[in-house]
Amino acid sequence: MKRAVRLLDAGRSRPLPALALVLTLVAAGFAAWAGQDWYRAAHDEQAAYAVQRDAALSAGEQAVQNLNTLDHRELNRGLDLWESSTTGELHEQLASGREEFAAQVKEAKTVSTARVLSGAVTELDDRAGRARVLVALRVTVEAADGAKTDKDSRMLGELTRTEGRWKLSALGQAPVGGTSTG
After folding, report:
1. With the C-alpha atoms ordered 113, 167, 85, 101, is the resulting torsion angle positive or negative?
2. Of the candidates 159, 150, 1, 180, which has an alpha carbon nearest to the alpha carbon of residue 68?
3. How far apart are CA 67 and CA 101, in angstroms?
4. 119 forms bridges with which residues in the sheet?
5. pTM, rounded to two decimals
6. What is the pLDDT along the chain (182 residues), one digit of tens a residue?
7. What does residue 25 show for φ and ψ, rounded to 5 degrees?
């Protein structure tokens, strides 16, 4: 009888190896599930598209802000920033009119500072490297006499991806309000 009790006790005294086996199986299952989930996320086309959309929006907002900010005291720095934010025909227009525009700003002695209020990508063709953004911003202009005025505006920008970076290739004022037909 003592021998039977010892056999029963021997069967009960080994819960640690069984528990370790169960925990190992659970951990392996979780690792397999997490690995598969990570692989799907890393190779998801929608995730890559979202990354490009976010990059285009960020670059578009920054470029629109850059092109609406200029200090007559640091004119060359500001105009260099304009040129580095643009590409294509817009870049050519800015570069060719730089001297004339610089003379006007120096004479007016103004400081304009833009702040992005909101922005959105309205179109994105990742394969072609083209995007369009709508950016709302507030531009504060300080005149030579210290008077400040704020103006809110909405800008439509076209972006082109060049050398892996999004740059403005066109910029214009967005229409405000409805259009009437008569």
Report:
1. negative
2. 150
3. 13
4. 135
5. 0.73
6. 555 455 555 555 567 787 888 888 888 888 888 888 777 766 667 888 899 999 999 999 999 999 999 999 999 999 999 999 999 999 999 999 999 999 999 999 999 999 999 999 999 999 999 999 999 999 999 999 999 999 999 999 999 999 999 999 999 999 877 655 54
7. -65, -40
Give yes or no for a contact between 95 and 31, defined as CB atoms under 8 angstroms apart: no
Closest by Cα among 151, 137, 149, 165 to 64: 137
Contact criterion met (CB below 8 Å) for 93 and 77: no
Coil, strand or helix: which one is 151? strand
User: How far apart are the C-alpha atoms of 134 and 36, rounded to whole Å?
Assistant: 38
Please report where in the chains the tokens 């392996």 appear, as a residue: 28
* Residue 48 CB coordination number (10 Å): 12
Q: Which fold has domain 45-173?
A: Nuclear Transport Factor 2; Chain: A, (3.10.450)
Which residues are within 8 A (CB) of 149 and not within 5 positions of it... i.e. 6 or more apart? 140, 141, 143
Query: What span, in angstroms and rounded, lies between the C-alpha atoms of 86 and 89?
Result: 9
Return the closest-CA partner of residue 153 out of 169, 167, 134, 166. 134
CA pair distance 177, 172, nearest whole angstrom? 16
Cβ-contact 112, 70 below 8 angstroms: yes
